[in-house]
Amino acid sequence: MTRDEATTRFRHWAERLIAHHASTSTPSTPNAGEVYQVSTISALLDGVYDGDLTIAELLRHGDFGLGTFNHLDGEMVILDGQCYHLRADGTARLASPTDRTPFAAVMPFRTDFEIPVRTPTARADLLHTIDARLVSANLVHGIRIEGRFATVHTRTVMAQTKPYPPLTEATHGQAETTFEHVTGTLVGYRTPDFEQGISVAGYHLHFVNSAFTHGGHTLDFVLDNGQIAVSQASDLHLHLPTTGPFLRANLSSADLSEQIKHSEGSGD
Q1: Are residues 9 and 41 located together in one domain of the fold?
Q2: Based on the domain organization, do 15 and 74 belong to the same domain?
Q3: Which domain holds residue 18?
């Protein structure tokens, strides 16, 4: 065997090995009915704002979801397989595949049922309507609400610098924006109460307008008319960091629920 033949054979073997590893270590399609979550909301509360997972890697696990970016730099919306970075000034842009996240949750969105909305409906009434249609409150549900909104009140956290403050302090400097007479989509989850601390129990929704140029974490809204789509999930894949800040974080604070409500700006 010549040197060139040996080199070619080795290259082909290496290519087959890499292809096999990729096919077994990373699913070609996301698992239906599974939410893939990076870290926990309790870690975010304790100031763990840096993660290793890239947006490109995150999108291998779903086409729908939300989260944040390293340094707590704004909010994240994943819709139809595209990841949007919502900034503190209320603007939005496509995220870079190399951006990283300390907390995010994604799923392959598959509509289980829809609810049309024909008359102006406030947040509390709309969420009650969804709750009434759920088979069980003990499962995770992806929530997509698309339409024309009379108002959407949002906030977006600003990028933090080390030493990182806890989330309840970081949100003191949040920028709030109210959008009026706007079309767009609310993206998020309804999570069971027993997941409080792992995720945000109840409803957690982010907003992006139909032009994908503005948005933020949703505090309140009134939907004039539109469509609600709900995707049920019964599996949770929890990807935990192995870095020092996460390993040292206090993940079981006595007032965890109050901290989450304060940082999320929600009474749920």
Answers
A1: no
A2: no
A3: 1-30
Q: What is the DSSP string of 221-232?
A: EEEEEEEEEEEE
- Which bin fits 140, alpha (ψ -120 to 50), beta or left (φ > 0)? beta
Provide the whole-model pTM: 0.87
Report whether pLDDT(249) > 70.
yes
Cβ(215)–Cβ(208) below 8 Å: yes
Query: Do residues 46 and 250 touch, judged by C-beta distance below 8 A?
Result: yes
152 contacts 249 by C-beta, under 8 angstroms: no
pLDDT, tens only, 56-88: 999 999 999 999 999 999 999 999 999 999 998
Q: Which of 157, 155, 177 is nearest to 169 (CA)?
A: 157
Same domain, 128 and 208: yes
CB 101 within 8 A of CB 48: no
Give the mean model confidence (pLDDT) for residues 172-184. Answer: 91
Nearest to 84 by CA among 217, 176, 178: 217
Does 15 share its domain with 94? Answer: no
23 and 123 inside one domain: no
Q: Which of 146, 118, 265, 119 is nearest to 202 (CA)?
A: 265
Co-location of 12 and 65 in the same domain: no
Number of domains observed in the structure of the chain: 2
Supply 157's token pair. Answer: 């956290």
197 & 116 share domain: yes
Return d(Cα 254, Cα 45) in angstroms, integer: 13
CA 77, CA 67: separation in Å to the nearest integer? Answer: 7
